[in-house]
Structures are given as C-alpha cells and as structure tokens.
Amino acid sequence: MLAPHSRRNVLRGMLGGTAVTVGLPFLDCFLNSNGTALADGRDLPVYFGTWSQGLGFTPGYWEPKGIGANYENNLFLKPLDPIKHKVTIFSGLRAFMDSNPLNPHGSGPAACLSGGHPKAGVSMPTVDTIIADSVGTTTRFRSLEVSCDGSDGSQSARNATSRNPSEPSPLAFYKRLFGPEFRDPNSADFTPDPAVMARQSVLSAISERRAALNGRLGASDQARLDEYFTSLRGLEQQLTLRLEKPQPIVGCSVPHTEGEEDPATHGTLITDTQRDHRLFARLVAHAMSCDQTRVVNMMFSGGGGGSPLRRQGLSMTYHVSTHEEATDPVLGYQPQVAWFMTQIAAAMAEYFMTLDSFKIGDQTLLDRSLIMYSTDVGRAQIHSQENMPMFLVGGAGGRVKTGLHVPASGQTVARVGLTAQHVMGVPVSTWGTESNMTSKPFTEILA
C-alpha cells in the first residue's frame, strides 16, 4: 500500500540524456474506501476549463427545444446528444456594448470571459485566471492553454496587455507535460527533442520504476495503471506518425512547393484542426487526471481573419463563408456554414466524452470538472452580440445540476462567468463592468 501523500509523486527517468516525468493518476490506494475522497480525508480536486470557438452558431438553429431537463438539441447541436445529460445550455444571453464601439470578434470574448468590453489599458482578467489563482496554486501548471487551429491565439489573459499564449503543437505540448522539470545549468541551450521522446516512448525510461510500483499495488490499481499507460503509448504512436514521411503512391504528385514541409505543420483544413484537437483532448485528460493542472483553456479555432479553417475542395474559408454565402431559401440557413458548425459541435462533444472516459475515484474527469463554452458572436454574418450561445458542462464534483436548458433572454453573458466562479469557490459577489456587471449567478443550477 502506498502512503496517501505519495499520490503527488511522479515516475522519473532518463531518455537519451533527457529527464522525463510521468504523473500518476488517482489510484484506489490514494483514495478512501468509497473512492469519494483522498485517503487522508481531503476532497478530490475539482477542475475548471474553457472551450472556445470563433463564429458561434446561427441563431434559430442551435437553441434547444424545451426548458429544464427535458430539452431537445436543435440542428447544430445534435452532435452533443450523447453527452447531453452533462451539458447545461443558456440561451438568449447578450453582450452589452453600452456606448463602446463594436470589436467584431473581440467584444464577445471580452464580455463572456471578462465581463466587460475590450479597452486599451483596462485591466480585465479572464475568468479562468481568476479561478486559477484560487485553485491552481499547488499544481505543477497553474493553467494550460492550447489552440487547435495552428495559431498561438488565446482568450486567456491576466489583464489587457498580458495574454496567456496557447500551444498550437500537440508534439510540443507532449514535451511540456512529460519533459524535464528543470534545466541543467551547465547546458543552458539544451532542450529535449519531443520527436525522440515520442518515438522511443517516455514509458521505456521509467520501466524499472513502473515495475517496482506495480509490485506494491493491488489488482484493480494494476489494471488501472496498465490502462493509463496503454492510453499514453497510443498517444505517442499517433504523434510519431505525424513525424514519419508517408510512403510514395504511384500517380500522386505535388504541383508546386517552395521547400520541404515540416510533417508536424498544421494546415488550414478543418480536418487538421480536428486531428490536433483529438490529440490535445487526450493529452489534457492525462494532465488533469494526474493533477498536473486544474485549469485548462482549449481554443478550437479563432474568429475573424484569425480563422483560416476551410473545407477540402473549397477555397473559401469558414469566416468568409459566414459573410458571403447566400442563405438557402428552403433550409433557412447557409449550408456550408452549417456544415462547419456541426463539425465543430462534433469536436466539442468528442472533447467532453474524452474527459468522461477518464475515471477519478467514483466519478469521471468530466463529472469532477466545470467546462465553460463561449464564442465571439451571436450571428457571425453581422457580428451580432445578441443570443450568444454559452454552456456549462460537467458536474464540478456534484456542485451543479447538469443536463438543463436555461432561457435567459436579454440578460448579460457575464452571469455564466459569475456562476462559474461561485461554483469554483471564488469569493466574489459582483462581476463585470457597465451594463454587463451582475450580481446574479444562475442559482437554479447549483446543487
């Protein structure tokens, strides 16, 4: 039996002269007999995250049918059906502009995540940094930020001029999670090669310590650890494939190139973003399940000119389509835009279900998390700040009711951020600025 305090230990090893670390998940031996708390009586952690995308969902086709627990997902959110019972949707919210000029793809995120309007020189910490200051001070990473569209864009900020950049490369993110925790002072320019780490597997570097650990565990913990390491190795194999040159195919030619392409480079196809999102989702789940961080910000894609997403065979980007594609008179919406929206909703659902597949005690990682979804616009075609879709996903360790549709017509989006802070234990009574300021959390979802 391992001592309760050793849950914070990691398995360390050396790989090609580089220090590597692998965190341990919450095994049964770290928990009480019911799996509801740590063995020493302390509560299991509750995690917070954001999941954002640019360009939102077309009004009239995402708002749920029905109120409360009996809602039915509308057209664009149908991909969320498998996880619907853990998703609470708020409809009718708006970002108030007051007398401030509209920033087409900046006003919405500022209101949703900071409770205000973007102004130069004004300190506006985002909700994730506020929560990280409360729950993320004892973990290896106060927070983690990733971007799936190939950019280092991020909605996370400590103030108006200090943004937390996202990691756009799953391979570099892997290195950050499993690479050395310190630098050799005599080798200041040395950094581990994530390609070598993935090809050779960090698991090989800790094999002896892993075997010693297994000898001290019960059968259920051995099975759990084997499942955990199998999942990690699968991730490494996927990352390795990104580094390998494809086999030649007769009849396949490249019309023009200006140099050798890095095989890990992100393209503009939405399939590239979906692929990276899938890798990031599993890496994030590993980091959270080992309590390396309690706050994660996932940006699927940006809005405006920062959103290069396009569909195979089409040159027009998703962003341009929202403004220029004609509305189908029969369908009532823009067909290509609708295709992108359902693809993005499917990716979002996949993220939630990935978190829901990792166990922590008697619950899943999603059950112990509160994930806040937000976007930049209500209707992308006109940069509307009305009817902004916002969701809260996960049970936060039993602190919230899930699977609800809460209509809030004409109310500020800041109410969701205030609710999230209350759920996560931040002592705040009011939040936001000007007309977005609110002292009214959504108490109907609190358990």
Describe it:
- This protein has 11 helices and 13 strands.
- By secondary structure, the protein is of the alpha/beta class.
- The strands form 4 sheets. It has a 7-stranded mixed β-sheet, with helices on both faces. Strands 1-2 form a two-stranded antiparallel ribbon.
- 45% of the residues are buried.
- It has a domain at 46-171 and 270-445: Alkaline Phosphatase, subunit A (3-Layer(aba) Sandwich).
- The longest helix has 25 residues, at 219-243.
- A hairpin with a 2-residue loop joins strand 9 and strand 10.
Topology:
Blueprint: E1 10-15, E2 18-23, E3 47-53, E4 87-91, H1 107-114, H2 127-135, E5 144-147, E6 157-159, E7 162-163, H3 170-178, H4 194-200, H5 202-205, H6 207-214, H7 219-243, H8 270-289, E8 295-301, H9 318-324, H10 335-356, E9 359-360, E10 363-364, E11 369-374, E12 390-393, E13 405-407, H11 414-423
